[in-house]
Amino acid sequence: MDIHIFLQLVVNGLLVGGVYGLMSLGINVVWGVMGVINLAHGDLIMAAGFLTFWIFSRWNVNPLLLLPVGMAMTFMVGMLSQRFLLGRLPQDRGAIKSSLLMTFGISYVVINTAQLLWGNEFQTVTSLSGSWMAGELDFAKARTVAFLAAGAVTVMLWLFLHYTTYGRAIRAVSQNRDGASVCGVDNERIRVASFALGAGLAGAAGVLLVMIFAISPSMGSGYTIRSFAVTVIGGLGSFPGALIGAMILGLAEVFTGYLVNSQVANGVAFILFLVVLLVLPQGLSGMFRR
Amino acid sequence: MSTLLEVRSLTKSFGGLRAVDGVSFKVEEGMILSIIGPNGAGKTTLFNLITGALAPDSGDILFEGRSIKGLKPNRTARLGIGRTFQIVRPFPFLTTLDNVTLAALAKAKNRREARLRAAEILEITHLSTFARLDARNLTLARRKRLEIARAMALSPRIILLDEVMAGLTPVEVDETIVLIKSLTTMGIAAVAGVEHVMQAVRKISDRIVVLNFGQWLAEGTPGEVMRNPEVIRAYLGSHYGETGEDA
Amino acid sequence: MKKISLVSGAVCLLVVIGIPFLASDYLVGFFFNMFIFVTVAYGWNLISGYTGYLSFGQISFFGLGAYTMAIAVFRFHWSWQLGVLTGAVLAVVLAAPLGWLMLRLRGPYFALGMLGFVQVLYMVASAASSVTGGGEGLYLPPTADLHPLYYSAAAMVVLAMGATWAVERSAFGLRLQAIREDELAADAMGVETTRVKLAAFMLSSAFPAVAGGLYAWRLSYIDPASAFPGNYEIQTILMTIFGGAGTIMGPLLGGIALSVMGEVIWARFAELHLLLTGSLIILVLLFMPEGMVPLVRRTVARRRGRIARSAAGEGA
């Protein structure tokens, strides 16, 4: 392979990886704190993307400015879901299965709502076309900006989790549920906050994703799989792991897309997901946790 | 009397913690052996190693003279090693009868045969009245009896009883003692892992092994062990009240 | 009680047999679709209801069955019956290695894995256009007579119910339920969990595969979107949960209830289909998570005072 092509693919993969990392952080938070798998995650990403497209196509607003808007929408959905639906499930031994099924149901509500509001077609946001050149390498503007924005959001998330009371409470609960409640943490509120946070992060990812790719309402589950693949590769509960996993997935998809075809590239996430779960269940971070 | 179960220098560590450290002992046919030791002494880990739920780091386990190291729990169960869990785990939404029938399936040819055997065992363990009740609706004492009934349904040669008397009233403890003693008349040996309830231990055990921090501390008849100064020292802090009368 | 169910069962059977001669083509089509859904639901019931492994990927076998039948007819000119049968066989054969791989994964991971597997099959179906017709699909000879399809579908439902009944009273069935209740304890009680789970998984794959084959033949067309219909998974899961997962009558009752509801309500609001289905699942999980069958059973038992009597027995 030509070295230029190789490097170009690496660049593309890493840039996409940034957004994938953001996608998976939402999963990481919810899973780590509550042990809940949110099957609607990818559909929330998609919904935020569609909202962005819609506002952009009507009023030509810079999608970056829509980051808080998209996040707010999915944040609300997440908060309401946890408070009034998921939170109402009995917390017995069947809780994981029931919440799995419920998020499955919620995902369909989200998909259909998106279809009703914004149609069933593939859409994308074309605000940023063209690329910046660094020597021979092509840094597509949309991808680069999305990458940087994803990085910014990630940093803000890290600050939130480490320097605010709510954030620290969330981390406490994810590490030790009972210990946290003995220290005065209101578990129920934290669950709502965490789920909402996870959903909000999905929204952020969606806003950025629609700048790069064309999305359709039915693509949600593909993003759910990708988010989980990244989380599993990196190891649950590990931020750096998730980011590395995201880069790996981004690179794998881009290279597969080039070497085979784009349809197979869509399946790469699933294959990686399976391989890691079966071979390295703790993910990459598990390897270093000795 | 031949050796039914033999544990040789069994060791298991978790990270830096030696949960079981070079433990050895033998169980003869029809014997009741009690393993005592304060919490964290390694009793449950030991049971997990014997049944195959955990793999030992070193050492060996011999059942009926053959090594069973590396066999999985469902294999050892079918070979004849039954066990109860410290935190009882009946199948909550299955009936009491079904709970025991499931275990009987290990040796029975079909469900009907298993159900008959299960009904017999429910008689022996005084649980017949609750045969059609979902297991989750049983009181703790009855759930513990169900644990034993399930283990018995495997038609085992030995049952490992993990803290089977914890949380029971004195009356319930006595009933359990009778049940465990009846196991020997049925030809089943028993290994009881116990932390508290020392009076019961004295009443049922043929032999006692004492563990402390995963290591073998002492072994002998109940009388010998209870008078052993090292044993008393290991227990004195947390069990002064119980061993006080022996000190 | 037994006599009532036997009589009502016989009556239902007669009705089912008689429908094609008495009812309009539209109604026959409605029942056919219902039978297809119910068959898939019984498959899901086996692996998820009885064994407790929540799968979101039954539709992968559905699509596999559909494509196998279509390819057998289109490229090898086999009869559709042979095609459907081959689809079932292929599904069970594929389910062996797939199950061996997937069943190692705990609850949510298994669910995710099966969800992803559907994606993979969709992708394969789109990509292997020389075999599957790719995105354009394959056109099959149109079916003139609906009756054989109808009866095949009805027979599948009876078969599925029979198989579920046989499983529930067998040793195999008890082992499955034990795995669902507590896999670790089941293992400690001598159940060969790996083997038993795999058997359930393989058995559960046959039903959606046949359903898919019949469905594709009715459609006279196959493409990735129709082989892996986006709403089938959630609908069949909803049916089973609504009726009662892990019961013999659950998928049938839930299937009938939801098909009727669908005709009356949703057919008018087709664009709201997924939304209503999703909402219904949420409601069922909140207010009747065990489904209709256990609810009915308990109401009947309560009326007969059985619960009061066993509570009194507790004092023994």
Instruction: Tell me the overall shape of chain A.
Output: globular
Largest sheet of chain A: 2 strands, antiparallel
Total count of helical runs of at least 4 residues of chain A = 12
Structural class call of chain C reads mainly alpha
Element-level helix/strand string of chain C: HHHHHHEHHHEHHHHHH
- Percent helix of chain C, as a range, is over 70%
pLDDT < 50 runs, ≥5 residues of chain C = none
- Class of secondary structure makeup of chain A: mainly alpha
- Rounded to an integer in angstroms, the radius of gyration calculated over CA atoms of chain A is 19 Å
Question: Most extensive interface: pair and counts?
Answer: A-C, 41 and 39 residues
Q: Quaternary arrangement of the chains shown?
A: heterotrimer
> Shape of chain C from CA axes?
globular
Strand order of the largest sheet of chain A: 1-2
How would you portray this structure in words?
The complex is a heterotrimer of chains A (290), B (247) and C (316). Chain A is mainly α and 290 residues long. Chain A has helices at residues 3-34, 41-59, 67-85, 95-118, 141-163, 165-175, 177-182, 187-212, 220-234, 239-259, 262-279, 283-287; strands at 131-134, 137-140. In chain A, helix 1 packs across helix 9 (220-234) and helix 1 (3-34) packs across helix 10. In chain A, 54% of the residues are buried. The mean pLDDT of chain A is 86. Chain B is built from 9 helices and 10 strands. Chain B has helices at residues 43-51, 73-79, 96-104, 111-124, 140-153, 170-185, 198-204, 222-227, 229-243, and strands at residues 3-14, 17-28, 32-36, 58-63, 66-67, 81-83, 158-162, 189-194, 207-212, 215-220. In chain B, the strands form 2 sheets. Chain B has a 6-stranded mixed beta sheet with strand order 6-7-8-3-9-10, sandwiched between helices. A 4-stranded antiparallel beta sheet of chain B has the order 2-1-4-5, covered by helices on one side. The model of chain B is unreliable at 240-247 (pLDDT under 50). Chain C is built from 15 helices and 2 strands. In chain C, strands 1-2 form a two-stranded antiparallel sheet. The radius of gyration of chain C is 20 Å and the shape is globular. The chains are: A mainly alpha (290), B alpha/beta (247), C mainly alpha (316).
